[in-house]
Specification:
alpha/beta, 12 strands, 27% strand
Amino acid sequence: MSNATKLLDPAFHGAGQRVGTEIWRIENFQPVPLPKSEYGKFYMGDSYIVLQTTPGKGGAYLYDIHFWIGKDTSQDEAGAAAIKTVELDAVLGGRAVQHREIQGHESDKFLAYFKPCIIPLEGGVASGFKKAEDEVFETRLYVCKGKRVVRLKQVPFARSSLNHDDVFILDSEHKIYQFNGANSNIQERAKALEVIQFLKEKYHEGKCDVAIVDDGKLDTESDSGEFWVLLGGFAPIGKKASSEDDVVPEKIPAKLYR
């Protein structure tokens, strides 16, 4: 038995023994396996380790380890994720490729593991998690970008978050609305519909209604009227403001700590 195996964190027991995705969330600086039902959810206040195992030649496995850093995670938790990534790589014989994923700037490779997209959510372990039966549905507004790989970002639930250039998803308790900005791309509109179907099945048990709202078209008796009421009433929306998500970050080496 190797020293790496002897020092194996119990959370990594059996890791990389099958093809597919395995995820751990950092809680109190330790990796905790994430239930498969939670795959795709990433809380902004947390850090995660994602292991992707794929078949290689001769029956061997190929490994990619990604550590995802939420925008609100602490430096200590982010550091713990990096350290535990190195430990997991050692357990796998040092054969894994390590990737650092920053919220909002994830690699296409990472995003492709989650169909149709990852769902970034406010909060994290430090702020506490409610049990499912205690949760009250929270209406959320997302901006949906990407023609091939979808990038979904939660934005403030306010009319001021809308613009004419993007596609937005408003997820309310009984209906999911897709708002198509007048200048939005047809491919992004189609991808947003895939996301809506995913949200409907995952969070509404397939039982909620879906509505399309087109920018500039207001009918107070229709779905668009309901949509604007949820946002406090119809009013002209502003131009898209540049944000940190429009800035392309420096390329980060795929393999670290070697």
